[in-house]
């Protein structure tokens, strides 16, 4: 969407065809990206990964790195904001786009309220946000022990309704996450793993659904979002203390509403802003540097290019000749009589 404002985009996955840039990440595609030997490589990930600048020329990620013009921090939540903005270009949506927004240039749809009746009602003050269920939870990855443990602890206090494949309490997976989340006062939105700057779409989904995020993940998340607008589990000494605070908000309407209506973004001199000026212009300038700079930085170790269609190592290469490892224990004997 952003690149198309300046460039004509042609997508393909053929390493034999010319390309200006190729996107990839180490999980599953590092091998494939080696096929594009004379093309500028751009690392992009939605996972908690650090870019390898020996393999990639440029990178877009979560980490707060300073690598001149070769790195741009653009967390995954920014992609979610793009899709949310597209969805509210609708005459019935409770959220309104600015008249000069690029998203408003397209013809609006007319189905948001039909698909999100509860969300529209709570945002438009047609229903009481205090008279909703306690908390919601939607997750598909079971390999997140801290998240699972917190769910179990919170659920033992008040019922937490699970709409995903993990800790599901409905008997089915919800298809409309925003509408589902809007029916509860809190949303448990833990990241799968923890890393500084690693903030995904989960907290955005909660904000969009007009519910308070109960967040765990990036210890620096308050740089991205206003700390008064969510429960940051990392701020508490343990889960029990965090749960006590959630219970306080749940039982004190004024405190709950104060947090619910806080602006999710931080402010400077009364003006809200995205951390690190994450604007369309900044993203476009980053790609302008890539496309208009002829330098290719990545290394091309010869070993990687021996044969791109064969595994780098075979089982035969790993075999050990145990005969060569035999030890003549007679030679190692110690004559203690000496």
UniProtKB/TrEMBL annotation:
Signal peptide start-end: none
GO-annotated cellular components: membrane
Pfam families: FucT_N, Glyco_transf_10
Entry keyword set: Glycosyltransferase, Transferase
Positions of substrate binding: 46, 138-141, 147, 174-177, 192, 198-202
Site (Important for catalytic activity): 47
Domain Alpha-(1,3)-fucosyltransferase FucT N-terminal: 2-77
One Gene Ontology molecular-function label: fucosyltransferase activity
InterPro entries: Alpha-1_3/4-FUT_helico, FucT_N, Glyco_tran_10_C, Glyco_trans_10, GT10-like_C_sf
Domain Fucosyltransferase C-terminal, residue spans: 132-258
Superkingdom per UniProt: Bacteria
Transmembrane segments: none
Family membership noted in the UniProt record: Belongs to the glycosyltransferase 10 family.
Protein name: Fucosyltransferase
Species of origin: Helicobacter pylori
